[in-house]
Every structure is written in C-alpha cells, then in structure tokens.
Amino acid sequence: MQKVFISHTARDTEWARSFAKALKDRGVSVWFDEFEVQPGEPWRDALESGLRNSDVLVALLDAEAPAKPNLYFELGAAIGMGKKVVPIVSKDADLSALPLDLRLRRYLIRETPEQTAEELSTTVLAA
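The structure assignment produced for this chain is given below.
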C-alpha cells in the first residue's frame, strides 16, 4: 500500500485534516503533520522523515501556496527522492504562479475532503 504525505499551508489545516481522515477511512496510509509530529520534535526532521517514508506527496495548493517556502522545500525533497507528486488545486489558485514542475503534472481539482479523497484513492492510488 502506498503511503501519502500531505503537504498543506496553515490556512488549509482544517480541510487537510478532514482530507487525511477521509483517506484513512478508505484504508490509505497517511502522513499528516498533526498526526505524526510529536511535541518537542523539530519540524524539519519530522517532515524529512515523513517524506522519506512516503510514496506519494499530495500538495494542497490554494492562491497563497506559491508564496509559502515549505511548499518548495517539500516539493524539492519529494522530487529529489523520486516520489510521485500529485497537486490538488483549489478553484481560486492561479496555476501560472505555481512552480513549473507542478504545472506540468496532471492535477486534481479540490472538492470536499471526502470527494477529493475518493478521487485520489480510486484514480491515483489504485493504479
């Protein structure tokens, strides 16, 4: 079974949490910061470990995402590690502002957490 690492901005935390739970309800193994990072653990170390132990990076992208440095750290690390990267794009995102590597990938449009989890699990993770 593929393990999914969820990359998100602070603004997307509530949606990302619901999405992570919806994936888990479908039997998907998920790395989500709130579930995995322990008190006192350095974020950077936890993120790196989570990425190393995951197969797929799911990047939740909204209009503010291109301005967030963590996006570039996590994306660069995932690509360098040879991970599959799946962008999930909100309807208000400016695709032209996204890093080229993300624009060149097929992405999913963000719907409800449950709908998006269903689409990811049946189209990407089932393949």
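Interim note for the steering committee: Residues 3-124 form a domain with the Rossmann fold fold (CATH 3.40.50.10140). The longest helix spans residues 13-25.
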